[in-house]
Amino acid sequence: MSLSTSSVIALHINGEDHELIVDHRTSLLDVLREHLGLTGTKKGCDHGQCGACTVLTNGRRTLSCLRLAVAAEGCDITTIEGLADGERLHPVQQAFLDFDGYQCGYCTPGQICSAVAVLDEQAAGWPSAVTRDVRPEAGQPILNADEIRERMSGNLCRCGAYASIVDAIARAARQDGENPRAEAGEAG
């Protein structure tokens, strides 16, 4: 009796459906980069420690190097390539440009995908380890520099662009005026 080590899977990525034959051991990261040519998502450590491979799966952060592609079937996956609306950048992408939230740029796609999820988590009222008032009636945590740093702690930047990254996320949080719980000012 021979067991197959590959399967046909259907993935929904950046609004498009893809049907692929993949080995069961293939990571979502490798499918994105090697099978679909979506090279914006970076392979950093390949151990889930740096965050360079962060994508959004059903709106939540996913380390694509740790997730098997077969386990992503049926999920809505968004990579850095899928955030912009045509030529119009996502507000987080624009803020990273405006505040120089990058240096070499290698970690930037993962940083941006993670930041998009951070803003959604905060807007939904999810507390972090540094949230002062975690009672449900407290509502959205205030998105200050400490909150941003804590929430982004799984994404590493070897160049050390952290101050600009925090400033960019703070700007994106207040950009449309719909986030009254985002603090203005420099990250410090």
From TrEMBL:
GO molecular function: 2 iron, 2 sulfur cluster binding; metal ion binding; oxidoreductase activity, acting on the aldehyde or oxo group of donors
Keyword field contains Oxidoreductase: yes
Transmembrane residue ranges: none
Keywords, alphabetical: 2Fe-2S, Iron, Iron-sulfur, Metal-binding, Oxidoreductase
Residue intervals of the 2Fe-2S ferredoxin-type domain: 7-83
InterPro entries named among the record's database cross-references: 2Fe-2S-bd, 2Fe-2S-bd_dom_sf, 2Fe-2S_ferredoxin-like_sf, 2Fe-2S_ferredoxin-type, 2Fe2S_fd_BS, Aldehyde_Oxdr_Iron-Sulfur, Beta-grasp_dom_sf
Protein's pathway: Alkaloid degradation; nicotine degradation
Annotated protein name in UniProt: 2Fe-2S iron-sulfur cluster binding domain-containing protein
Organism per entry: Streptomyces marianii
